[in-house]
Structures are given as C-alpha cells and as structure tokens.
Sequence to fold (212 residues):
Amino acid sequence: MATVTIVNRKKLLPPESILRFQGGNTSITISAQSYDTALDGSASNDPDGNIATYIWERKLDAGLWQQIGSTAFNTYTNTVAITGTYQYRLKAIDNDNLSSYSNIITLNFTKLSSVAPEANINDSTITNYDAMNSGEVYQLDASLSTSGEVGTSFVSVNWTVLSPSGMNGKIKYLNQFKATFNPTVAGTYTIELEVVSSNGLSDTALLIITVY
Fold:
C-alpha cells in the first residue's frame, strides 16, 4: 500500500517597507548651510517574521539611486550640503531574505551662504557733539552694511545703547537702517548695531559718542 505524504508549505510573505522623515512628513523643504536628514523606517513591518536589514538609498536630482547605508536599525541620518532635490527610499529585508521597497520621500534643499554679514556704521567715533545744548539729534546710519554672499538679504536690524543703561528710549527707529539718537545728558555713549542676514548669521558694530 502506497503512502502519500502531504506537506503544507505556508507561503512566505515579504516585509512591508514604509519610509518617512522624522516627524512623519514625506516631503520637506530646508534652507541651511547643511542638514542632517533624519530618515524613519519604524513603521515598516514583516507579517510573518522580522526585518533583519534596512538598506537606505538616495538619489540627487536626475542622478542614479545610490546606497548610503545598511543597518539593523529602522532609523538613519544622512547629511546633505549641496543644493538640490533629494529622494530617499528604503529596502527592507526580512529573516527569510524576502525584501520590498518603500515609498519615495523628497527633500528640497537649498544651501545657504556661510559668509557672515558686515555691520557698518558711517562713523566709528564722534566727539565734541553738543546735542544737549543745541537740541540736535545724531543720525545713525547703517546703510553701508552688507548682507554677505550674493542671494542673501537682511532679516533684522537693531540699534541698542549698551552704556549707560536705560537709554534705549533716546533712539528712534530702533529697527531701521537709519535711526536717530538724542542724548540729553553729557557723557560717553556706546551704541551697538546688530544686523542679521537671511543665512542666519549676524554681525555687530559699535559707535561711541562723547557729549559735552
């Protein structure tokens, strides 16, 4: 009598690969000098086992896909410092050596200048300025300041009386390139100009006024 053996072979299922940026987004736009791109594959899963390896891939603009990392962990960080459109995808490989690719996520990155702005006040020292008697005011002028590399611009301008303290009220138009200062007491006044560029860098300059 013949014996028939029936082997029930369960079909193995591939992992499900899911990729996001840290925070859950699938598309982000960043302007910086460089950026640490935090990739998150923690939503990936394997229905009949576990994920053994995570293969991280990247494509810049119209270039080819390139492997940038292979880990046993479901997160990865990739630093970029060149302007362009970066696409990322994840290949998950399970313990049965089955694999799948994730969705594609996109980083639009613009590299900002590393050149700091330059704060420039028309005169570095003014002496014998008798504003107290004449009733005149001193014109503060920062229009010669430069924002840094081509393509950057100023995002803020600020005038501050560093000494003596409590004199900021004597400056009008504190946040404009051209302001006025009206000292009412004799003494030496130190005024600071701070300019901040769109690349996030800043610079300061000092003006010293002596009033008799």
The chain has one helix and 16 strands. The CA atoms of residues 32 and 200 lie 8 Å apart.
